[in-house]
Amino acid sequence: MEAFFKHYDADEVYHIKPEEAPREIGLLEQRKAETYPQGREACVKFMKKCQKKGWPFMVKVKKTRPATFYFEVEGDACALTAGELASFFKHYDSDEVYHIKPEEAPREIGLLEQRKAETYPQGREACVRFMRKCQKKGWPFMVKVKKTRPATFYFEVDSTAHVLSDEERDSFFKTYDSDEVYHIKPEEAPREIGLLEQRKAETYPQGRDACVRFMRRCQKKGWPFVVKVKKTRPATFYFEIDRSVIFNAWGMSSFYENHPANETYHIKPEEAKREIGLLKQRTGETFPQGRDECVKFMKRCRKIGQPFVVKVQKTRPVTFWYEVDK
Fold first, then answer.
1. Closest CA to 298 of 320, 326, 257, 267
2. Rg of the chain over all Cα atoms, to the nearest angstrom
């Protein structure tokens, strides 16, 4: 399956729904002369799996002679669910611990597939998807073994990876009420981590470990952040990313740029759902930032309470841009 998670260059790209897989299998079988570098049988198996799992996929065509066809998973179609991903951030007891580099993930996937009798409480398929994600993101991870009969295997993000689950990360993009606010530079993160470790009695609703991983990530990425303090007894501490880097932090820098427009509309977070619906209705218009990316952007804005702007250029067809409302 590894070949179907890569990104291939193409002259044409077709987005296929899971229920359309049988049609595409039929087309493959009709194309006797065309080239399928991933293997014809492997492509058929891949499409059947997509149909069964409900994963959308892409058919990419290179206009060689004869034409060359590649198949890819669509975006994060087979990504881990929030519940699955959270399980890889927990700490499990073990008799043995192995630290795995991202590039060693294929080897570990192979070992998992060989171990037919062993137990994987997090789910075999979820563990495979987790390791592929680690390989793609460059995250080291751990394999923990309990010497039961048969042996039990757990997988965890390596604490040195400085990564957060989706649920944890979202908590640092919200806005919290406070009595005091401190603006922290990225290079000051070690000092703040030390202060957190000294505060044994204080409360950290986002989770102490998650706050440490957040600050390490800010230090690594060069992101300023905010420490907010509520003067409860004991004191309560919240951490937030500096709003100026919020969308760069998500790899969404184009939504922070200033795009030219003939018309500008200011949208409240609670209106995002309506705007997503309008985007889906505009089938002929142009969205240079990418339709899927614009939908993700609006969903994020709605989730964290961030107002945004829709900018319209009166081209033919009309062009739409989305930006953070600064």
1. 267
2. 23
Residue with tokens 């952040």: 225
CA distances for 289 relative to 64, 148, 311, 312, 323, angstroms: 29, 51, 12, 13, 10
- State the residue for tokens 């492509």: 43
CA atoms within 13 A on the CB side of 47: 24
Q: What region, left, alpha or beta, does residue 65 occupy, with left being phi > 0 and alpha being psi -120 to 50 degrees?
A: beta
CA dist 278 and 39 (Å) reads 40
* Higher-scoring residue by pLDDT: 7, 105: 105
Per-residue confidence (pLDDT) for residue 250, from 0 to 100: 56
Tokens of residue 202, six digits = 């204080």
Long-range (24+ apart) CB contacts under 8 A made by 38-41 are 38/3, 38/4, 38/70, 38/71, 39/3
pTM, two decimal places: 0.48
